[in-house]
Write a structure and sequence with these properties.
- The protein has a 6-stranded mixed beta sheet with strand order 10-11-9-12-13-14, with helices on both faces. Strands 3-1-8-5-6 form a 5-stranded mixed beta sheet. A 4-stranded mixed beta sheet has the order 15-16-17-18.
- The chain contains 12 helices and 18 strands.
- By secondary structure, it is an alpha/beta fold.
- The protein has 4 domains: 7-156, GTP1/OBG domain (Spo0b-associated Gtp-binding Protein, Chain: A); 162-347, Rossmann fold; 364-459, 2-Layer Sandwich (GMP Synthetase, Chain A, domain 3); 466-502.
- 33% of the residues are buried.
- It has helices spanning 58-62, 127-130, 172-179, 227-230, 255-268, 293-308, 324-347, 382-389, 396-409, 411-418, 446-450, 467-493, and strands spanning 7-13, 46-51, 65-67, 87-92, 95-98, 104-108, 114-118, 149-156, 162-165, 197-203, 206-212, 239-245, 283-288, 312-315, 364-371, 374-381, 425-428, 434-437.
Length: 502
């Protein structure tokens, strides 16, 4: 039965945003008192949380499909839909998140770090929120957008200060059990350890973690044995401890040849860009099982040759606990030096420069594509694509609202610059997108006669004249009467008519 998983593919589905509501408020003596449709709720996010209590990705191996809650729909009486609850997925500290193309999105190395892996959809606006002085009674609402959906790869890379590497049955599990409180499985047959084990070592005032990596064999970097699956757990370690078996009974094996094979496999393993190669990190050698007389003799024989290669060598016995204290202090010294280097490098890191968006960046672009049926003009951008997804194309008023938004964004001017003419094929969004025949907006007196789009004369309640308008009309009437009397007087003086009416 599988008990440890350090690489898994998960399929995530964020929540969908709820649709806005179209509603008209009704009151006594006011059957059409204005729009009161509420907004739709936002869809829930899928969040990855680095949890120190999580140690494996086994749960996601068993249930790889995870979905967040959808947002609620808006309702009348200005009632907004509920926001979908976010789905928090706990992953072990040291988990690397990669997209479908293999690009690293985030490295969760700090406990408590949160990463929004799938963003929830946006809730649509109701007609109350869409109302304005020019659009007093919208007969439409915006739809909610779909949440992000896709697949991500989770890789667990053990965070430890020291990695124990060596051949199977070299005594790595016994060593970590003797140095720390860890209790890994120990047996006298190869590949006893099937997953990395972590142990915390306390030496005086120093504390560091040790990782027991499953045994390596020749060809591990090419996929043989278990080495390729678990060499990634060595990437984060600041120091390596080669555990060499001095009491092996296998023919053709000795500590020197074992070390050369392990070094060859470590050098063949590619580390991520920016990290120090494995063989360039501090390394110590532990000659294990010296409690066996023949093994002690072999350790005394090979020690000068290993020291000539530049290694610090320690003769140890996990059974008798011989040499473990000296080895622990040496490892603590390497770890402290590595931590000081990390602090110095962190202080020297360049500042992050945030560049604001250009003033002339409209947030979209027009791409001209040629095809069998002629030229196609494709509009790509976050805003136009989101607006199209929020539009109910069964509602003519909603389509007109979309056209107004695109015109204000400058899409029509961009299409003209790209060479589009009336009747040209325009696609909004990647792939199939939304296809339509473009007709430029024509300004005429139709809207003046019919009223602006989104208005309803039935809800126009303010028909009374103001005092200023009354005074203006009164003065105009008085001026007209005075002008009429003056005109009659001029005609009388000219003799056009007499006072007796003849």
């Amino acid at each position: 039965m599988v008990t440890f998983v350090d690489r898994v593919q998960v399929h995530l589905q964020a929540g969908r945003g709820g649709n806005g509501c179209v509603s008209i408020r009704r009151e006594k003596f006011k059957p059409l008192a204005g729009p009161d449709g509420g907004n739709g709720g936002h869809g829930g996010d899928v969040v990855l949380l680095a949890d120190p209590q999580a140690t494996t990705l086994l749960d996601y191996h068993r249930r790889p499909h995870r979905s967040a809650e959808n947002g609620g729909y808006g309702a009348g009486d200005n009632r907004d839909g509920t926001n979908g609850a976010e789905l928090v997925l706990s992953v072990p500290v040291g988990t690397v998140v990669k997209d479908a193309a293999g690009e690293t999105l985030v490295d969760l190395t700090e406990p408590g770090t949160r990463f929004v892996a799938a963003k929830g959809g946006i809730g649509g606006l109701g007609n109350a929120a869409l109302a304005s002085t020019k659009r007093k009674a919208p007969g439409f609402a915006l739809l909610g957008t779909e949440g992000w959906s896709g697949s991500l790869t989770l890789e667990l890379k053990t965070i430890a200060d020291v990695a124990l590497v060596g051949f199977p049955s070299a005594g790595k599990s016994s060593l970590i059990a003797a140095m720390s409180a860890a209790r890994p499985k120990i047996a006298d047959y190869p590949f006893t350890t099937l997953h990395p084990n972590l142990g915390v070592v306390q030496v005086a005032d120093h504390r560091f973690t040790v990782a027991d990596v499953p045994g390596l064999i020749e060809g591990a970097s090419e996929g043989k044995g278990l080495g390729l699956d678990f060499l990634r757990h060595v990437e984060r370690c600041s120091a390596l401890l080669h555990v060499l078996d001095c009491a092996t009974l296998e023919p053709g094996r000795d500590p020197l040849s074992d070390l050369e094979i392990i070094k060859r496999e470590l050098s063949a393993y590619p580390v991520p860009e920016g990290q120090v190669p494995l063989l360039d990190r501090p390394q110590l050698v532990a000659l294990n099982k010296i409690d066996v007389p023949e093994a002690r003799e072999l350790a005394d024989f090979v020690r000068p040759e290993l020291e000539a290669l530049g290694y610090r060598v320690f003769e140890i016995s996990t059974v008798a606990h011989e040499g473990l204290r000296e080895l622990s202090f040496a490892l603590a010294e390497l770890v402290e030096e590595a931590r000081k280097r990390e602090l110095a490098e962190a202080a020297e890191q360049p500042r992050i420069v945030l560049q604001p968006k250009a003033v002339n960046d409209g947030g979209y672009r027009v791409v001209t594509e040629g095809g069998t049926y002629g030229t196609v003009y494709r509009i790509l951008g976050a805003k136009p694509e989101r607006w199209v997804a929020q539009t109910d194309f069964t509602n003519d008023e909603a389509v007109g609202y979309l056209a107004d938004r695109l015109q204000k964004l400058g899409v029509e001017d961009a299409l003209v610059k790209a060479g589009a003419t009336a009747g040209s094929t325009v696609v909004i969004g990647p792939g199939s997108g939304v296809v339509f025949d473009w007709e430029p907006t024509v300004t005429s007196a139709a809207e003046v006669q019919m009223g602006a789009r989104g208005t309803d004369l039935r809800v126009e309640q303010n028909e009374r004249r103001t005092n200023k308008e009354r005074r203006s009309e009164y003065h105009e009437r008085m001026d007209a009467k005075a002008e009429a009397r003056a005109e009659l007087e001029r005609e009388r003086k000219a003799g056009l008519w007499e006072e007796d009416g003849s």
